[in-house]
């Protein structure tokens, strides 16, 4: 860790300069507590861009970067089939780790990451996920305070164009962590676990896979029963028809105003008969090194990031966290609690990591927490396949404040 003037700085290396890195970049670049001090990526274009942007070295081989002694921590943002290899590599070099969601592609793999970080006595945090969003954390605060009584039922929906964004073929391969159950339920389940107590006792689910050419998990509907009696129902469709951001004041997942017709444009583009290679080129064009940020992300921030409409039904109120604040329909009537925006997008992720690293505060989004979420995602897939209820392993309660 370096001190610049009176500011303590975390020297961070990044593995994987893709979309996730681009979404974390405003926080990583703008937070004076962080110095982006190295990167690793197989793409030369991305490495060159990183060296120009951050005046720090970029490597083809992640091990060469992890072995440097001028880094304190590694942000693992490579595709999730590589998370285990990269987390183990960072831990073996004594570096603290922040790994993107989903933590891995199996609970067993997550266990190996947890054990490696425990052995090396380094921190392991899983994030970003949308359970870091301010409106969700505010709901958690209220739930913990007992203000509206116990949580009984949580309902969440998200209708997106996930399946029709430009993709590599391997992103549809469910065995390699492709499709919406691994990629999107990881957010949904994380939010539901945080607000419903954390320990899922039973999962009953349906998973949809109905497009003839984009074959993968494209939709799900899952019922999660929690220890203590709460129940969550989560529904997601990535088939680019309805856009549920219209139910979120027209503000999208990344906190920007969205065009309600965007999904139709997305689907039209791919219906026009792109070959796989052309589609991969289109994806490359949106990557770090090829494009600064996509059009939507260059537009001004209009609200908090979110993962779709949500109603949290408690004993004394229904809470509806949105991009602008929280609607409260309670025994006392209705009110809206606006929530001011943070100065940097996704800064909450760094706040939690640094509070644990420098302040000794327990992590909310620890490796154990990430594994419990992944185990529920695996149970969604298994329940859909067997058409039976599944009891997920590795569950843990929400850590105390
Ligand atoms: N939290 C979020 O909102 C969010 C958003 C997007 C992605 N993600 C997660 O981030 C991870 C990466 O996804 P993405 O969308 O950025 O993927 P991506 O394909 O856009 O980028 C991945 C990057 O990793 C690089 N890479 C590939 N193999 C590598 C290796 N062996 N070593 C080092 N780098 C390697 C690629 O060249 C690319 O630059 C996934 O786990 C994904 O689920 C999270």
Task: Summarize it.
The protein has 401 residues and is of the alpha/beta class.
Main sheet characteristics: 8 strands, mixed
- Strand neighbour order, sheet with most strands: 9-10-11-8-12-13-14-15
Strand runs, count: 15
What proportion of the residues form beta strands (DSSP E)? 15-25%
How far is the first residue's CA from the last residue's CA?
26 Å
| Shape-level CATH architecture of the largest domain | 2-Layer Sandwich
The low-confidence runs, each spanning 5 or more residues with pLDDT under 50, are none
CATH class of the largest domain, anyone? Alpha Beta
What does the model show?
The chain is of the alpha/beta class and 401 residues long. It is built from 13 helices and 15 strands. It folds into 2 domains: 125 residues, NAD(P)-binding Rossmann-like Domain (Rossmann fold, 3-Layer(aba) Sandwich), CATH 3.40.50; 221 residues, Dihydrodipicolinate Reductase, domain 2 (2-Layer Sandwich). Helix 5 runs antiparallel to helix 13 and helix 8 packs across helix 13. The structure holds nicotinamide-adenine-dinucleotide (NAD).
């Amino acid at each position: 860790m370096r001190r610049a003037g009176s500011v303590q700085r975390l020297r961070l290396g990044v593995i994987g300069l893709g979309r996730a890195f681009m979404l974390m970049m405003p926080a990583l670049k703008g937070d004076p507590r962080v110095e982006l001090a190295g990167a690793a990526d197989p793409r030369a274009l991305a490495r060159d861009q990183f060296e120009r942007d951050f005046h720090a070295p970029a490597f083809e081989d992640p091990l060469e970067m992890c072995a440097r002694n001028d880094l304190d921590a590694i942000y693992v943002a490579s595709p999730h089939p590589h998370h285990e290899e990269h987390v183990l590599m960072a831990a073996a070099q004594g570096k603290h780790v922040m790994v993107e969601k989903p933590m891995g592609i199996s609970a067993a793999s997550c266990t190996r990451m947890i054990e490696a970080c425990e052995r090396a006595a380094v921190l392991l945090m899983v994030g970003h996920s949308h359970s870091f969003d301010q409106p969700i954390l505010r709901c958690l605060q209220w739930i913990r305070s007992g203000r509206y009584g116990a949580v009984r039922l949580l309902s969440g929906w998200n209708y997106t164009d996930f399946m029709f964004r430009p993709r590599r073929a391997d992103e549809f391969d469910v065995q390699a962590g492709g499709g919406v159950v691994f990629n999107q339920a990881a957010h949904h389940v994380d939010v539901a676990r945080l607000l419903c107590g954390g320990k899922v006792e039973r999962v009953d689910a349906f998973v949809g896979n109905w497009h003839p050419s984009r074959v993968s998990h494209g939709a799900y509907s899952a019922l999660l029963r929690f220890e203590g009696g709460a129940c969550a129902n989560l529904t997601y469709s990535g088939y680019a028809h309805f856009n549920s951001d219209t139910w979120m004041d027209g503000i999208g997942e990344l906190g920007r105003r969205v065009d309600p017709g965007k999904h139709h444009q997305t689907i039209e583009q791919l219906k026009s008969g792109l070959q796989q290679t052309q589609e991969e080129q289109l994806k490359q064009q949106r990557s770090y090194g090829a494009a600064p940020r996509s059009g939507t992300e260059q537009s001004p921030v209009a609200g908090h990031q979110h993962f779709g409409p949500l109603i949290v039904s408690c004993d004394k109120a229904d809470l509806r966290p949105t991009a602008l604040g929280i609607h409260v329909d309670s025994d006392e009537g209705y009110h809206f609690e606006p929530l001011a925006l943070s100065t940097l997008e996704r800064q909450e992720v760094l706040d939690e990591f640094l509070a644990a690293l420098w302040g000794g505060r327990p992590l909310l989004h620890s490796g154990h927490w990430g594994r419990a979420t992944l185990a529920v995602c695996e149970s969604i897939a298994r329940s859909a396949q067997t058409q039976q209820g599944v009891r997920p392993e590795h569950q843990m309660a929400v850590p105390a404040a």
